[in-house]
Amino acid sequence: QFHMIKYNDLKWDESLGQGSFTRIFKGYKIDIRDGEKHMTEVLLKELDAVHKNCWESLFEAASLMSQISHKHLLLVYGVSVHGVKNIMVQEFVKHGALDLYLKRGRSVSVSWKLDVAKQLASALNFLEEKNIVHGNICAKNLLLAREGDPSQGTSPFIKLSDPGISVAMLVVLDRIPWVAPELLEAPDDLTLECDKWSFGATVWEIFNNGNSPLRGWNLDEKRQFYEGFQQLPPSQWTELADLISQCMDYQAAVRPSCRSIIRQLNSLITSDYVILHATEPVTQ
Ligand SMILES: N#Cc1ccc(Nc2nc(N)cc(-n3ccc(CO)n3)n2)cc1
Predict the structure, then answer these.
(1) Measured from the CA of 74, which atom of ligand 1 is nearest?
(2) Beta-bridge partners for 85
(3) Closest ligand 1 atom to the C-alpha of 91?
(4) What is the residue with the minimal CA distance to atom 3 of ligand 1?
(5) Parallel, antiparallel, or unpaired for β 36-47 and 76-82?
(6) pLDDT tens profile 107-127
(7) CB 16 less than 6 A from any atom of ligand 1
(8) Is the minimum distance from the CB of 25 to ligand 1 under 6 angstroms?
(9) What is the pTM of this model?
(10) Distance CA 272, CA 228 (A)
(11) How far apart are CA 212 and CA 98, in angstroms?
């Protein structure tokens, strides 16, 4: 269910760093359309051969997402295999991962952040309607296609990236607090509710300038965070803190539906807090 792309139709450009198990490059794919040669900007995600066994889960996760299309879901053009190298060919998203963008100290407004949160909620709502679990919602997997410019009145535009290696493959403890607590005992019981928990942690990241929650905590302290039913430090904006803690409820069944999340985000967007804090970012 993936389009196979010939290795010789791909051109590598600069390296853009590496994720876990993968190296990413800017690149181009060559298409011949009505007799003309077209070069499309792409993101080449190489899976290093040593993690060959992860390829299936990476492949499976991405192919799941490539079967559906939505404006806030990353487009995957296909895959290319060359010897031991497996390459996923994705649409190139102009500004890259949101966590790095926010960490670079771009001061963005409260309404910019709410807009991004709402786009993520609508992508999750779409997946929920298709009963598809993403499994790895976090700011690193949100890609910024358009920065948005308040002075021009244009808003940001994000794309949700593929889940990457399935939760089961990753060290689950490492992904505290994004991974839902119920997955610690049963990493395979990935449900739609798990994405709600991760949504809460991701909104927390967005309102904390891309800083990772529990940054610097070791695996044992992270485990205790769940064992003690702890919550992330609440925002001073109580309604935002409420939404985050509803999503990060230790009881999966009581986490809000996507529709409720979107409704609550809409009321946050129209609240006077946004106007009062139009420029300065929300501090925790
Ligand atoms: N400087 C810079 C810069 C870096 C990347 C992009 N673009 C892009 N497009 C994608 N489709 C995916 C990604 N990713 C980035 C991290 C991951 C983790 O997997 N993906 N980045 C644009 C600018």
Answers:
(1) 11
(2) 82
(3) 11
(4) 96
(5) unpaired
(6) 898 999 999 999 999 999 999
(7) yes
(8) no
(9) 0.93
(10) 35
(11) 12
